[in-house]
Amino acid sequence: STQSHGDDELMPSFSARFACTSVVLALLVFMGNMCCEIFKNPELEHLEMERSEPLVKKTLGPIGRTLIVGDVHGCLNELKELVESIHFVPGVDRLVLVGDMVAKGPDSKGVLQYVQSMNGLAVLGNHEEKLLKIRKKMLKGKSIADVKPKHRVLVEQLGEAEWRYLESLPLYLELEDPSLGVFWVVHAGVNPFKGHPSTQLPEELTEMRLVLLDKTTVAKGKKGTPWVQLYKGPQTVFFGHDAGRGLQVTSHAIGLDTGCVYGGKLTGYLLPEQRFVSVRSRRAYEPPSQKVATLIRIDCERDVTVENQKRSTLESANTNQYNDST
Fold first, then answer.
1. Contact criterion met (CB below 8 Å) for 281 and 261
2. N or C: which end of the chain has fewer CB within 10 A?
3. What φ, ψ does residue 98 adopt, rounded to 5°?
4. Model-level pTM?
5. What is the DSSP letter of 93?
6. Residues 201, 185: contact at Cβ < 8 Å?
7. Per residue in 251-276, pLDDT tens?
8. Residues in CB range of 131: below 8 A, 6 or more apart
9. Which one, of 55, 74, 58, lies nearest residue 66 by Cα?
10. Sequence-distant (≥ 6) Cβ neighbours of residue 93 within 8 angstroms
11. What share of the chain is helix, strand, coil (3-state, %, to 5)?
12. Is the peptide bond before 288 cis (omega within 30 degrees of 0)?
């Protein structure tokens, strides 16, 4: 009788627990379904169906800050200094490079290893492409007698990990930031008459600087218009490849090649703050052309720095910098 009375007292407690557990489980299932709906992205699914090649790396939502860096060209110390200057947090912040990480400078292998260690994203530049072509010739047993000694040495220095990384580089990146929306990263530029990078020729994305009257593009020459003058968006494009014009800022394009390897600066653009950061090169590792040398000298004489400058304050300063030569 006593035992039966005790069991009667326990039964409501057990039933209550069971009911609570059922409610919790139901809530978890509901939340799980909601999460699935939240993280479905019809736009991304469409992109994956439309383009099967691994060229798009689109990040959804905020992940910390994004630092987009101009042409490094083997300048490892300057790259580290730039990254450290913003108190970069690995695993939270995102490092993105516009290509030409290698060649000309003192430590191309070190740059590639550092970028990989930071889980950095990068696009294929014309110098990475050149190294890959040399390696392909070597693997096929073809002569590389016409290859410049500095490139030959670099090809011999790189290990399998670096080669795999170079081979994985896309021609462009399509990324997203809360402050800027969707933006593109390429090495050289985009043909303003073609639109999305997926519609462009590889050499346009890796080598072009000028657009001719027939809407074709060239890397250099006395005729043609800088593509950034003709590009009207809507996506902002980050690029490098053009130390001869230095920092370029328009309403829909930002050129970050400020000639670090020639004794200029290594420049980055920080999101979501939308401001420039830069560090001076420790020295000229490669003799600059007369045009690049002039830009660097003027910069030093005026003590001009883009450190912490907002994009809007620099757009007007770039209005009259363009000319028809390279």
1. yes
2. N
3. -90, 15
4. 0.76
5. B
6. no
7. 999 999 999 999 999 999 999 999 99
8. 102, 103, 151, 154, 155, 158, 166
9. 58
10. 63, 64, 65, 66, 67, 86
11. 40, 15, 40
12. no
